[in-house]
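Aim 2 progress update. The chain analyzed this quarter is reproduced below.
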Amino acid sequence: MSNILSHAMMELDRIGMTENSEDEMNVLMRKHILHMMNEFAGEGHSGFSASYAISILTRLMDFKPLSSLTGDEVEWNEVGEGQWQNKRRSSVFKNADGTCYDIDGRVFWEWYKDEEGNVSKTYYTGGESSVPVTFPYTVPDKPIYEYRHSDAEPLQPKQNEEGFL
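Predicted structure tokens:
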């Protein structure tokens, strides 16, 4: 058994995704993941080629393009009157006036305190999560994370980026 397959089995066991789990979805997912890991291990990659393949596979499995979006007409599907969606990255849209934006561009965060007083960060998106797009557009690996205190219920105490005031 390869090191990568042994590692995968150990990590899946650690999160409860065992071959004799009571959760049928976990059993099926474990089998599927180990099948993919076994196929990958069988390709005989070295450290460099494995990293190279993983980076490409990760982008493709995440529906991210491998090269910059061009904005060419062939990249768009009309999804409504005066509204187009990019075929290569579904989070990118174009308006009738030609302006383009990525709805996955920004994620807001704030501090959250639960009923027991445990503090953590909470993340959310909304209408202001879009960022303007100009071409060529390279889809970022992750969105911009921006601190913003919301007025959502339950209302959180006054705070700033460092914590509660």
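The chain has two domains: 3-61, 73-164. Residues 24-42 form the longest helix (19 residues). These observations will guide the mutagenesis experiments scheduled for the next reporting period.
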